[in-house]
Amino acid sequence: MRIDILSVIPELIESNFAYSIVKRAQDKGLAEIHLHNLHDYSTDTRHHRVDAYPFGGEAGMVMQIEPVDRAIAQLKSQRDYDEVIYTSPDGEKFNQKIANQMSMLNNVIILCGHYKGIDHRIREHLITREISVGDYVLTGGELAASIMVDAVVRIIPGVISDEQSALSDCFQDDLLSAPVYTRPADYKGWKVPEILLSGHEAKIAEWRLEQAMERTRRLRPDLLDE
After folding, report:
1. pTM of the model
2. Count of alpha carbons within 13 Å of 60, Cβ hemisphere only?
3. Cα(208)–Cα(158) distance, rounded to whole angstroms?
């Protein structure tokens, strides 16, 4: 899978892809992540600006259409893309189902929003999908892009050696995960549930499902409604 990220400050997220699972995915050749600085596509040869004042006099600056169009056009001249995604607070809410869908794609472009927003013509003519990571506003879309990439790359087959671990993550079955424990079994009198020490796989699986249901009902009842 190849992911191209367009940003006005790509340095903000470079380190997020240089360690841990995402780095191992790249080392294995299972994922390619390329960062592109939109200033390199500016038509302003002197200052390389990519923003301008909005028409109509509203406060703030707006990302211009030309640098974004030039960057996307250059990438599309080299390969086909399944999606061109814009990180937007008014996009569809990112969740595990979307991450699963994206992990099956071959080539994706992610445009990180910045400033007051982007020229709306970008959204009308160049973007195929808009995604939000939550009902709040960030300084830029770089953090949102990092979240999406991390969630998507880790479930690409072969990235995690224990694929069963990824399949049992929260939200994979629309439930929160059951509690997990490790050694020691008794710490300061705080004991691990006996069922987990029994070795009875069927009963352990039943306990985990019951716990997942109970935690979801208590902490995230909206997931059960959905």
Report:
1. 0.87
2. 11
3. 26
